[in-house]
Amino acid sequence: MTENLVNRKEARIKYLDQDKISRDFPILKRKVKGRRLVYLDSAATSQKPRQVIQKISEYYERYNANPHRGIHTLSGESTEAYEGARTRLARFLNAPANGVVFTKNCTEAINLVAYSWARRRLVDGDEILCTVMDHHSNIVPWQMVAADTGVKLRYVPVTDEGDLDLSKLDELVTGKTRLVAVTGASNVLGTITQLESLIESARAVGALVLVDGAQLVPHVPVDFKAMGADFLAIAGHKMLGPTGIGALVARPELLEEMEPFLGGGGMILDLTLEGSKWIEPPWKFEAGTPVVAEAIGLRAAVDYLDEIGMEAIRQHEKKLVNYALREFAKIEDFHLYGELGPERHTATFSFNIGDSRGGIIHPHDVGTYFDSLGLAIRAGHHCAKPLMRRFKVVSMSRASCYLYNSESDIDKLVDAIHKARKFFTGV
Amino acid sequence: MEFEDLYQEIILDHYRKPRNICEGDDTGHICVKHENPLCGDELSLHMKMNRNDTIKDICYRARGCSISISSASIMTEAVKGLKKNEAMELIETVRRMMHGEVVGDGLGDIEALQGVAKFPVRVKCALLAWMALKDALQSPYRQR
């Protein structure tokens, strides 16, 4: 590569055109309680650029039809768009297209593995390794498998700094381990987990690895093949796409061996009254009319992310993490959970504000107060109760950023933190 | 506007300087503990009755949001000295108020809780102490 090209690539990587990006998201112009919205809840769901919204409208206005079934023009176009979305998502993640199963959301993708793989393969005495950091959606399905099969669940603990504690990994990953189910990035702490070490340990004992990519894929460039995981679950709505779509990305040979989770139309090779034969994956996992508009929306989201560049987004978020950690450090009686620094942190921050008498201001009070200032944050247990217990709290406030947030949003957040304390404690 | 309705000065005052926090020993008290697992609010209420069925003494320990703390503070101030049936009537009035009913005035600091009705997710916070009181009043150990 010539130096010129490298420089140009770097130039592209370092700066996002923040003005253009904020213009692309119509909702960011909205006023809340008389103030311009500061959206800091992207870990719950991201906002959608005009480009995504338009593609969804266009589908309904111009070529809405049931794909795969009809022989008319519209159905052909709809099929092409739906399958095109699959190919596009696969290219975005460097995954094989026949390894991409569209689901309703990330939770369904994880449950698909729990029902179609784990329940059929695992027996009493086998173990699944989860983590204390994971979202309920990557714990509950395995607890349900455990209840039905006698499989034992074990958990990777979390350090005070908010990292997965891999110091006893040798004891946790053993010959009994059949699956390691781990998040790629914490929805609470923002911690980017040590997937490489976990995947290596799992490989060594022949266990499969499922990565919950809901909070990873929107923020960090992900190469499914290079990552070496067996399953990757993703959520479309957290990566600028619409709600109602997620995906399970898997090694195609695993999908071959798995039985369908849902039965119905669109997944049948032949059906007699005595029984049915399935078509090949990924379609055998997509019974019923598929989520066409949602897939088209997700494709537009992927196009948008690629246009800006995932590496550029990552760099932008690292800058925000750096800035936020520096600003948070100046606040007295402030508890930030997870402080691994920008290399291991997405721009998601969970915290509690001290009430200057040894307690904290309840996150629900913080959330309501912030809302009055136009700041949208999340307050509660974030579907991560084991993690709340780990940090000996019932709830946390969480501010989560994405490509449309800037340092000035962090300034507003810090300002709101000071104001909230003053408002509730009177000092 | 709604925000100010919720966090009225009276509420903030009770939250910052909560009244009737338990100090010392609870011997002879009726003790009940209520919690709201969704938001982690916790309240333990301690109450002593007179022979003539009036509330002699009432105090609490709590962990929670400003609404649940201030409501507990307001409640304990309001019911001390009330007869059991009067306290039960007051609980019902507050419950109706939390469901948006207009319940009239003359309720003192309790009226400051009216704004909570506009925030359905916070109604449980406000009712926590009142439901604990109901439980305590109906406790079979009341006569001891």
What features would you describe in this structure?
Chain A has 427 residues and is α/β, with parallel strands linked by helices. Chain A folds into 2 domains: 9-45 and 310-425, Aspartate Aminotransferase, domain 1, CATH 3.90.1150; 52-307, 3-Layer(aba) Sandwich (Aspartate Aminotransferase, domain 2), CATH 3.40.640.10. Helices cover 41% and strands 17% of the residues of chain A. Chain A has helices spanning 3-14, 18-24, 50-63, 73-92, 106-121, 140-149, 169-172, 195-205, 224-227, 252-257, 292-308, 310-329, 363-372, 385-390, 407-425, and strands at residues 31-32, 35-36, 38-39, 100-103, 127-131, 152-156, 177-183, 208-212, 231-235, 246-250, 268-272, 275-278, 334-337, 348-354, 360-361, 375-376, 378-380, 396-400. Mean pLDDT of chain A is 94; it is low at 1-9. The mean pLDDT of chain B is 90. Chain B is of the alpha+beta class and 144 residues long. A 3-stranded antiparallel β-sheet of chain B has the order 1-2-3, covered by helices on one side. Chain B has a single domain, classed as Sufe protein. Chain: A, CATH 3.90.1010. In chain B, a hairpin with a 4-residue loop joins strand 1 and strand 2. The A-B interface holds A 33, 359, 361-362, 364-365, 368-369, 371-372, 380-381, 393-395, 423-426 and B 3, 6-7, 12, 15-16, 38-41, 63-67, 119, 121-122, 125.
